[in-house]
Amino acid sequence: MKKSRGLQWPIGIAVALVLVIGMGAWTIVETSKEGVQESDIYMTNYQDADTDANKLINAKIAFNNQYKIEYISKQLNADDAKIEYKITSKDGKPVNDAKLKVIVTRPQVHDEDITLENPKVNDGVYSFDTKLPGIGRWDIMAFVEVGSLKRYYNLKVDTRFDLKPVVY
Per the count of CB atoms within 10 A, which of 34, 91, 98, 101 is most buried? Predict the structure, then answer.
């Protein structure tokens, strides 16, 4: 029977340590090649959105107690995109003095962002006309402010299908 010199454990630990550090470095190199960008669901970075989550939720509740906002565009078309929102008070009266800012963006990529401000307003309907750089999935993020009340109204749409937008 051959006696072991006790080197198997230190060598095994050293090899495992080199493999873990090497795989970590490889992961960082490979992920840095991709065009992944931070989420901006509330038109800010996710750290600020996370910090202010309760304020954002309370602001949405306060806004919804007095006003109603809805996306009323029939279908989003890349060549002639008409984005429309209707803002009314809870008793159904149109609101014509709201401030509305809209950002149309691709999910996870911000190279083709379109910022829309100064909409046409007619009887509580806020309209933006624009042209999208391509077909496919789009996120439409809106920030509405009426007096001191404000809220974000975000939805996902697809120019390829005539589907109802998903509000999130």
Answer: 98
